[in-house]
Specification:
alpha+beta, 2 helices, Glutaredoxin, 4 strands, about 30% helix, single chain
Length: about 100
């Protein structure tokens, strides 16, 4: 997963719910030094009895914000969405000569 272009990650999930697996896996895919590189990571764990669905919000360097309802998505779908926009940003950066 391309995390170089991410600036802000917000995750809300119930760690005991099987439907929160994509949220947990997404957090595990973020490199350990991401916060040192300037990425803001905000994770909110819900109580065991909560019925609120897992959600993920990702903000990119170009200002685009993606809101994903993880209740209906698998981790491969989430990674594909994030990588699609990251590849577009990488292509723009490469073409501009930076």
């Amino acid at each position: 997963m391309i995390t170089r272009f991410l600036t802000d990650v917000r995750v809300t999930f119930n760690p005991f719910s099987p439907r929160s697996k994509p949220a947990r896996l997404f957090l595990s895919l973020i490199p350990p030094n991401a916060r040192l590189d300037g990425m803001l990571i905000d994770s909110k764990m819900l109580p065991r009895s909560s019925k609120e669905p897992a959600s993920l919000t990702v903000k990119f360097k170009d200002g685009k914000e993606m809101h994903m309802d993880l209740d209906k998505m698998r981790i491969t779908d989430v990674m594909a969405e994030v990588d699609r926009h990251s590849r577009q940003l990488a292509r723009k950066e490469e073409l501009s000569g930076n």
